[in-house]
Design a protein that fits this description.
The protein is an alpha/beta fold. The protein has two domains: 103 residues, Alpha-Beta Complex (Aspartate Aminotransferase, domain 1), CATH 3.90.1150; 220 residues, Aspartate Aminotransferase, domain 2 (3-Layer(aba) Sandwich). It contains twelve helices and twelve strands. It has a seven-stranded mixed β-sheet, sandwiched between helices. Strands 9-12-11 form a three-stranded antiparallel β-sheet, with helices on one face. It has a two-stranded parallel sheet with strand order 1-10. Strand 3, helix 4 and strand 4 form a beta-alpha-beta unit. The radius of gyration is 20 Å and the shape is globular. The structure holds pyridoxal-5'-phosphate (PLP). The site of pyridoxal-5'-phosphate has 13 residues, from helix 3. GO terms for molecular function: transaminase activity. Pathway: Amino-acid biosynthesis. It holds the Pfam family Aminotran_1_2. It comes from Albidovulum marisflavi. Keywords: Aminotransferase, Pyridoxal phosphate, Transferase.
Length: 348
């Protein structure tokens, strides 16, 4: 199998707009908590993530017993797929769904089946149509990566109602904090037994480097996943940082508001230049070009200016680049380069 392709880091000093990291970094309280926890590094971390789970449960009004934490939500995705799908089984996802799901399926020997999207937006009808007796898991990401689009939560609830009871539905909300929909009804699906909701501290909380994700699991599913998690999976420093970040909701909200503002300006500049972007509900935007050659030529121009966007060939979208929302000066420079590119007739 091919290894999962992370974004390339480019030369030293390049500005990454490639990994959907936060433009605002972690809460100062998280940094202070991490520094304080360093002194305890001689000890193994809490295998029950007690403080972090308590903070998540208080912030979201959830039962701490239903929460499991992972070394990034990637660890939880990998363990869920290994626990519930194997050779001969199908994992159904969306055409442009998060690519790591495919890698996790390969690791488990399961087949990944993609349902087509309509206008860069996932279609629950297309997912419904592709459920077969071999489908074990339906995986969807809302808001989606790399499209940034989202569907109403009511459509996910209706999909759950129509799926066979023994099919596991995984709702990946890595960008959930950027979505203005109330997540309560999606969290509530986990109370019915066959649905897991995943979240991460890597995006809106600015803690990608601390590798901390969490999920809300029905008890039996959580028990199965737990057997596959690496015990002591989240370091003591990461747990301390994540707990403090979770308790600093003000920083998270300011990050979301600041990101949305920069994103709106960037999208407006690109639209004014003639690009047609899907509306994003996340901390990145997908930029379609006329074709793959134009996308590559634009990427080269951006790279020459020290700006690295993410090529989308792995998603079957080689005519697109994905730009993470970063500091305003970097976005302004990127918008300027892309506007000039278009103006000079290179996007064709
Ligand atoms: C949709 C989606 N899910 C999950 C992840 C994994 O995040 P992490 O492992 O950092 O929690 C990402 C990271 O980019 C993502 O885009």
């Amino acid at each position: 199998m091919a290894p999962y392709a992370l974004a390339d880091q480019g030369p030293a000093g390049a500005i990454s707009l490639a990994q959907n990291e936060s433009a605002f970094g972690p809460s100062p309280m998280a940094i202070a908590a991490g520094q304080a926890a360093l002194a305890q590094s001689g000890l193994y971390p809490d295998p029950e993530w007690t403080g972090l789970r308590a903070a998540i449960s208080e912030v979201h009004g959830l039962d701490a017993q239903q929460i499991l934490c992972g070394a990034g939500s990637m660890e939880l995705i990998g363990c869920l797929i290994r626990a519930f799908a194997g050779p001969g089984d199908e994992v159904l996802g969306s055409q442009y769904g998060y690519l790591f799901t495919k890698t996790a399926c390969q690791q488990a020997g399961a087949s990944f089946v993609a349902a087509p999207e309509a206008g860069f937006t996932l279609s629950t009808d297309a997912l419904r149509d592709r459920v077969t007796p071999r489908t074990r898991i339906v995986f969807l990401c809302n808001p989606g990566n790399p499209t940034g689009t989202r569907i109403p939560n009511a459509q996910i609830e209706a999909l759950r109602d129509d799926l066979p009871g023994d099919v596991l539905l995984i709702v990946d909300q890595a960008y959930g904090e950027f979505d203005d929909q109330d997540p309560a009804s999606i969290f509530a699906l986990t109370g019915r037994g066959g649905t897991v909701v995943l979240r991460t501290l890597s995006k809106a909380y600015g803690l990608a480097g601390a590798r901390t994700g969490w999920g809300l699991f029905p008890e039996a599913i959580g028990a199965s996943v737990r057997k596959l998690l690496n015990p002591n999976n989240v370091s003591a420093v990461s747990q301390a940082m994540a707990e403090a970040a979770m308790r600093d909701q003000g920083h998270m909200r300011a990050t979301v508001a600041g990101t949305v503002e920069i994103r709106a300006r960037f999208a407006l500049q690109l639209k004014a230049a003639g690009y047609d972007l899907p509306h994003s509900h996340a901390n990145f935007v997908l930029i379609p070009f006329a074709n793959a050659d134009a996308a590559q030529a634009a990427d080269t121009r951006l790279r020459d200016a020290g700006l690295l966007m993410r090529g989308m060939g792995g998603y079957g979208l080689s005519h697109c680049l994905r730009a993470t929302i970063a500091a305003p000066k970097h976005m302004a420079r990127a918008a300027e380069i892309l506007a000039t590119f278009k103006e000079h007739g290179h996007d064709r």
